[in-house]
Structure formats: structure tokens, C-alpha cells
């Protein structure tokens, strides 16, 4: 996934349009990409991901 790219475009109305490559119906995004996608600081995204594991919504592998 080192060469994985995500392209985020803005419409004239300010909405995000995202261009991604799907593999096996899965999209993998790193912290920087999630931060850009949701227009939030990386610390916010990281905190939310931490809460997902803390609350048992997902198990760490």
C-alpha cells in the first residue's frame, strides 16, 4: 500500500468528491488521508480510532 493514493476534489459548492482505487471491496486510508477526507486534525481522527478499540467496536489484530 505504499503507493496507494486517494484524490480529494472539491465541487463548486464545497462538497468533497473522492477518487480511490478499490481492492476486494475494501478501501484502506491512513491517518493523513482520513484527516484530509474529514477535514479534521489528525489528533481528532486518532482519538476516534482509539475509542473504537477502547469501546470494543473492533478488535485489534
List the helices and strands and how they pair.
Layout: E1 6-10, E2 16-20, H1 31-38, H2 42-54
Antiparallel strand pairs: 1-2
Helix pairs in contact: 1-2
Describe the structure concisely.
This protein is α+β, with helices and mostly antiparallel strands and 61 residues long.
Strand elements, count: 2
**Backbone shape:** globular
Strand content: 15-25%
Radius of gyration: 14 Å
What is the subunit organization of this protein?
Answer: single chain
Alpha-beta content class: alpha+beta
Task: Report the mean per-residue pLDDT as an integer.
Answer: 80
Cα separation of the termini: 18 Å
Helix content: 25-40%
Largest sheet: 2 strands, antiparallel
> Biggest sheet: strands side by side, in what order?
1-2
SSE pattern: EEHH
Q: What are the low-pLDDT stretches, counting only 5+ consecutive residues below 50?
A: none
Number of distinct helices: 2
